[in-house]
Amino acid sequence: MMDWTISITILIGGLLLSMGIGLPVALGFLVINVIGTYFFMGGSRGIGQMVANATMAVSTYSLAPVPLFLVMGSLFFHSGLARRVLDAIDVLIGRLPARLSYLTVTSGTVFAALSGSSLANTGMLGTLMVPEMMKRGYKKHMAIGPILGSGGLAVIIPPSTLAVLFGSLARIDIGGLLVAGLIPGVILAIFYAVLIFIQARIDPDAAPSYDYEPKPLAERAKIFCRDILPMAVIICAVVGSILTGVATPTESGALGILAVGILALIFRALDMKAITTAVTDAARVTGMTFLLITASSTFAQLLAFSGASAGFVRWATSLEMGPTQTLLVMALILLVLGMFMDQVSMMLITLPIFVPLAMSLQFDMIWWGLIMLLMLEVSFTTPPFGLLLFVMHGVSPQGTTLQEVARAALPYIFCVFLLVALVIMFPILATLIPSLM
Hints:
The protein is built from 22 helices and no strands. By secondary structure, the chain is an all-alpha fold. Helix 11 packs across helix 21, helix 18 runs antiparallel to helix 19 (365-379) and helix 19 packs antiparallel against helix 21.
């Protein structure tokens, strides 16, 4: 058998080369898979096996929540329910220094539990909040930073489509991985609020106060009961059904769509345009995702069949590094890759190697998976190619540079690093809720 270092160089190197010359990720995987299958799996017979494996990869039941969560989140935004929640939270926060920044973090946390999409969260908050904050005299970092930070919360707060995909690829219990992000997600939102408080105290002019007409307590209670409390139905349908064991992640996704649809009907916000847009968006993203999963499955098998995965694991475990140091190296690799490629591509490349290594080190896979998801969240905002940076740049005021957007994200990236350190030191933050299920 070919030495594992040559095998891994051919496969990983060929994949990176295909991306470097501009091939789409899925096409790059397909080219390398065909070449690798021909050489490592018996020529034309291997090609036939690759086609059979591809069919099995996308027919797994564990992937069913992906399109369901996507439809739920898209319908939540396009029906106008998201705007009702945002306006209600704005009234409830009241008179508070840097209130619009706090409003962004609070809304982003709520939206993360209702949509499951970081890109949708960032685009929604950026479109609604940035013009208002600029009009009120907020400095750019106080307007852009909270949106980038809270937009990424959807990676770990259920229902996270990225967590479903990660759990499916890594063969981790998806229900456990979804709910593992609840406590860390709330802690991260608190970190963001503390960061805003510190920034506002250091530079009060960064978030100037403005006249605000306070609402009577009775009216605020009415707004809460009318526009916020009903949204708990969606959270209970998705997160509550998983926590109580009433529904699987797939069934909870269907319940989430039903809950959003019923609320949209009650608020008279459901029409054919919202439904069509939600289904179309979900179908487009699901098709792309499943194509990449098909390619990744074969790529992982090639790494295993050629001996590359086993050889890498033997090499890594033979180094004079403890489990924590190895974990930090994995996190560093994701951080570096996040500067140059999207999250799905990163998972497809690294998980076939990282998962066997994590299992050989006897990590709790839910705990390990959450840490990897947190690093994927950071990679959303790492320059030069962080996806959220481009989304945010697209909705920022004219003249805003990508460098300004990236600088605004840095303090929020530090908050995620701080949370990663806490989860490593106190694994119970990630494992407590899954252990109660």
